[in-house]
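Homework help board

Subject: predicted structure for assignment chain

Our instructor gave us this sequence and asked us to write out the predicted structure in token form, then describe one feature. I got the tokens but I'm not sure how to describe them. Can anyone check?
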Amino acid sequence: MSQSHTAISSDGTSIAYDREGTGPVVVLIGGAMQFRAFDPVTRQLASVLADRGYSVINYDRRGRGESHDAPSMTLDDSIADLRAIVTELERTGELGDGVALFGNSSGGSIALAAAAAGLPVTALVLFEVPLGDELGADGAEFVAGLRERIAGDDPDAVVEYYMKDMPPAWLAGAKASPSWPIMVRIGPSLEPDAESLAWSQSAPRRELWGHVIAPTLVLTGDETLDLMTTAAKSIESTLPNAEHRTIPAANHSWEPHIMATTIADFLHERAGI
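My token output:
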């Protein structure tokens, strides 16, 4: 059964998280639009992974769910929030040797940035991180455009802009769903997602994360966009200890039991945790 907790980030922002299970720590980093009350699939993943012998942290990123809004929502803030969770786990004696990170979509680029910044990471599992071309300029242009819309007076435009390069049916479906007001509400919290993708293009990738030696599993679905496979191969070729696998998954989503089994088997066999 999960237990709710709070960590206080370096700027005083309260970060809410659930902890479920006992064993080595796995932190789940959501991508765009994901938080606990809005994301039952990741909650299921946490429960199944906990049953496999792990202590699983599922948290609301700042500006989402029960974590507080803050004047600043940058990539550095997101990394500081993860450090706050790690510090709290260390304080309570639950940390062990460090944390494994599961990053979904743009949560994967946040995970990479956190590992590169020195978070005590024992392993990484990354699902369909939508990186642009190495050293490309599109990421910087995208985050600049997003920030312009966050500063504007049309909150719908923030999410519309963030989703502009996705299949049109995805945006149309989102706007027609009862979830659209929730997505608009958390729109400002998309800035770290966009910034992390831009960061991945800010220097040669071997310079950005070539010092990260944690065992890494890069995953794509067997039905996915070409850009996801290209990005996965780029991560695999620039991280020292990474491998790429394909799993049954489609439309940029996954089934909790398949993902939990994939994560647990990798952590046990490759990371020894």
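Reply (TA_rk): Your tokens look well-formed. For the description, you could write something like this. The first strand starts at residue 3 and ends at 8. That's the kind of observation they're looking for.
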